[in-house]
Amino acid sequence: xxxxxxxxxxxxxxxxxxxxxxxxxxxxxxxxxxxxxxxxxxxxxxxxxxxxxxxxxxxxxxxxxxxxxxxxxxxxxxxxxxxxxxxxxxxxxxxxxxxxxxxxxxxxxxxxxxxxxxxxxxxxxxxxxxxxxxxxxxxxxxxxxxxxxxxxxxxxxxxxxxx
Length: 163
Description:
This protein has helices at about 20-25, 80-95, 110-115; strands at about 5-10, 10-15, 50-55, 60, 75, 130, 135, 155, 160. It is of the alpha+beta class. Helix content is about 20%, strand content about 20%.
């Protein structure tokens, strides 16, 4: 296998042909957020968090499963990419169980970490309430009202809000 020249956020890099964009980014210490990626499993590009842009293409590519090509100019972070990631996180949270405080992965959860790190929390990640100790977690069942980061009520005595 040969080597290919790529550029990641303006940083030139020579990598083996077939290397994924995600692995190439790691080589130059550029962090691309992931949720479904695991180094011991084949990539399946299910979550959409790792989207990046490749110069000359109107599409976004999933870094975990897209191999680099010679001459690729890859952008890992810009306002449009950040907005897409924010939307993906919000969509995942919209269908995620609201029981973080009862979950054994609480405070050791990739989704919680992404919701806190990515700009999604500026709008208030749905389903993740701020506890009185300031940490992010889900609302308790039977609680009269939980507040999200944005301050909106996520539950009431009659059940979850429809917002």
